[in-house]
Write a structure and sequence with these properties.
Pnp Oxidase, Chain A; alpha+beta; 9 strands; binds flavin mononucleotide
């Protein structure tokens, strides 16, 4: 298949079909202000425009994701890994306003807490955190705070590694977007 975006979607559908818990998530890799790599698990969403992630602007990863990021997925059920480098585009506020309503209660409260205390900042202990959360004022009606954000991921390179080959030789392909066309290269696995 020469369209790696469609290939990713088909492989992910197979992983979902196999009830692979990893099908829901990705690892987002960024580079921090000290030049250190940072990686964390995030839910990987399908939206009509493509792949998306939801993150809070109070977290350092928001600034780190303004231009390009790398994401990685590994689906044990189908024995496939993808490594993707993507350009990021902030999702429109209207999209966030609507999708945010679907979040469970505690993540909604946390998003409002982040308006006072940034995500990934330190507290004294868990009691202080729970106290802060309890004292966080929520607006009525409950709407998304300004810091709730999302990014559309626009892949520029996609690498697929398929371990599931009967002769034991893994199948590795890199796709590179070039002037709107995907170029395909076979790599030594
Ligand atoms: C299964 C799983 C799903 C997660 N999904 C998200 C997510 O969608 N958005 C998010 O901001 N953090 C998510 N997290 C938490 C992040 O991995 C991370 O701990 C948090 O965002 C703080 O990251 P930071 O230090 O880069 O700010 C998830 C963690 C796990 C284990």
């Amino acid at each position: 298949m020469s369209d790696p975006v469609a290939r990713f979607a088909a492989d992910r559908a197979a992983a979902r079909e196999a009830k692979d818990p990893m099908a829901a998530v990705c690892v987002l890799a960024t580079v921090d202000e000290n030049g250190m790599p940072q990686a964390r698990t995030l839910v990987l969403r399908d939206i009509p425009e493509g792949l998306a992630i939801y993150i809070n602007a109070s977290s350092p990863k928001w600034q780190q994701s303004q231009e390009r990021v790398a994401i990685q997925v590994w689906w044990p059920s189908v024995q496939i890994q993808y490594r993707i480098q993507a350009r990021c585009e902030a999702l429109p506020a209207l999209h966030i306003a609507e999708s945010w309503q679907l979040r469970p209660d505690v993540p909604k409260q946390m998003d409002w807490l982040y308006q006072q205390r940034p995500q990934s900042s330190e507290v004294n202990d868990r009691d202080e955190l729970l106290n802060l959360l309890q004292n966080t004022q929520l607006p009525a009606p409950l709407v998304a705070p300004e810091g709730a954000r999302g990014l559309l991921l626009l892949p520029e390179t996609i690498e697929r590694l398929d371990l599931n080959r009967s002769n034991g030789v893994h199948d590795r392909t890199r796709y590179v977007l070039d002037a709107g066309r995907w170029l395909e290269h076979t790599l030594i696995p």
